[in-house]
Design brief:
The structure holds two protein chains of two kinds. In chain A, about 25% of the residues lie in helices and about 30% in strands. Chain A is α+β, with helices and mostly antiparallel strands. Chain A folds into two domains: about 5-50; about 60-170, Rieske [2Fe-2S] iron-sulphur domain (Rieske Iron-sulfur Protein, 3-layer Sandwich), CATH 2.102.10. Chain B is mainly alpha-helical. In chain B, helix 3 packs across helix 11, helix 6 packs antiparallel against helix 13 and helix 19 (about 430-440) crosses helix 20. Chain B starts with a helix and ends in an 8-residue tail after the last helix.
Amino acid sequence: MGNEDNPGVAVRGEALSPERRRFLGRLSIALAAIAAAIVGIPVVGFIIGPLIQSEEPVWRRVGAISNFQIGQTVKVSFEDPSPMLWAGVTSLTAAWLRRLDAERFVAFTINCAHLGCPVRWLPKAGLFMCPCHGGVYYADGTVAAGPPPRALFKYPVRVRDGQVEIMASAVPIY
Amino acid sequence: MAGFIRKILSEAVDAFEERTGLIKFLGDIARHPVPPDTGWLYVFGSAVLVCFIIQVVTGIALATRYVASSGSAYQVLNYITYKEVLGNLLRGMHFFGASAMILLVGIHMIQVFLMGCYKYPREFNWITGVMLLFLTVAMGFSGQLLRWDQTAVWATMLAAEMIGRMPLIGKYLARFLLGGKTLGGATLSRFLAFHVFFLPAAIFAVVGIHLFLVVHDGISAPPIRGLKVNPKTYRAEYEKLLEEKGVPFWPDVAWRDVVVALVVVVTIVSLAHFVGPPALNNPPNPSLLANDPRPDWYMLWYFAVLALLPRGIESVFMVLAPLAAFVFLLLVPVVWNKGERHPARRPWAVAMVIMVVVTIIAFWVEGSRSPWSPDFDAKPLPATIVRSNLAPVINGAQLFYDKGCEFCHMVDGQGGARGPNLTDVAARLTLNDIKIRILNGGGNMPSFAGLLSREDLNDLVSFLESRVQEPTRISGGTSVPVASASEGIARAANDPAPHFSK
């Protein structure tokens, strides 16, 4: 198709057949997609990295066994299993630790099983209570009242060399 | 001399325009024809844009000081607030800018909906507006987290738990949010990247499309009763209207936007100066428990919704409700894109807006009171409230505090609002019924069967009775069917009636 006013365009238009144009169009899209994937795959991998890395739970010492009286429930703070140097106080977490007898301990997460708010221990009532929506648990961690769908999670506890150790693990997500 | 400079400048401008065409391009946009009599209801969109610009400018300024480190951000926030020159004002401007933006997005949306501006051919502009609504809320929430105090840390935890309820992928989404299995070093940096790069970039892009469409399809004429939108004839009618009565946007219409812009700016800066930004609370230490996390005001109503949901639908609601709201809003212009625009002829549209606004305000009020939260600040009842010399009553009052009753129940104006006010409970229930209730619990009240001795139970009831009458102290032989602890728990769990009435 000759174009008297704009011969340059006309020549280029005639130089390529419609099939070739379609091919070049598709080729360009494919090449661009490859380029995008080469950049995108490592970027996405980096961003979702926290999902795939597995962190072994770590035993954390929370104090000498003699510090804990039988029958008492106390809050103990310890470092979470992935403390980064720049995390500061945010690497801390806590548990409600109770000494059951000479050797045995039980440790509850401080996170309410409802939405993760920090539950408090009411020693005189023998109840855990959540400040957010009033979830209540009995001393053994079972649900006493309110919205929690399940009992408080427990951390494994052990005694090593006279020291009480709690297995620090991921934030309990239900 | 002046003439010479003017000549040089004019030549420079001409040369620039000859090469770029930008002056004509932008001038045409500024002076694009607008229907007559648009008036003061058309200012809200530009008011939102003003807020967004304030947010970008104050945000960039704050970013020159901020340190996105989980361990240091709190100290930096304190420094900005208390030591840095104008730091408190800048924080206040950013907070009230965000508040104004969310409020005005809501008003803009209601105005567009009530005036039927979203109907043909502006459906897609409504859809971009819905995207901007959700992006704005996401900015607000991620911004609150950057304050990185104890409230921010627990709000993050709550958000992680909430999205963790999503089936199959919930756990991974929660980890994505936290940047790992625990809240810590990686968490704050992610929020910064979202709040400062990703979300603003998305907002810029969508605002660009939003504004392009405003010019492409033109500003809708004020609705007229009986004048229906017919997609087949609308464009021609609109062109005719502009040709006959159209006025240039600048300055005929734009001056109102500028007046409102000034009002918005003055309001935001005044609030920032006189009210100031939200105070920082405790450090972001997840092992400190004494706190009461709650969102900023614009999310408070949703916080109340979640707190008041019936138990069974909670998990489903948390995941599906925001999604359903998003899809519903996207479908509005798809389903109702023609016909009447005037609100007087669309009673259901008006009713819907009133219903949504009233519902949100009601939840706001509840959210600000949050009666579902136990009051851990409650103090033991003083002698002036106990008003008794009887040992059982005094002991009962002490037990009322020690056993946690007072965190949820009020007596003579002191205590929580989670459960019923017990000031005159002895007038409503027999003493036996009170004992049964305490021992069995139910719904939102734990069973105290295993937690109270018989003597303490009698004292507690005597105390409650003493609110209404002289206690008829009956020690020992009571006819109360004392449920065993396990029975009490079973009954509490099966009791469908919520103990909590508000």
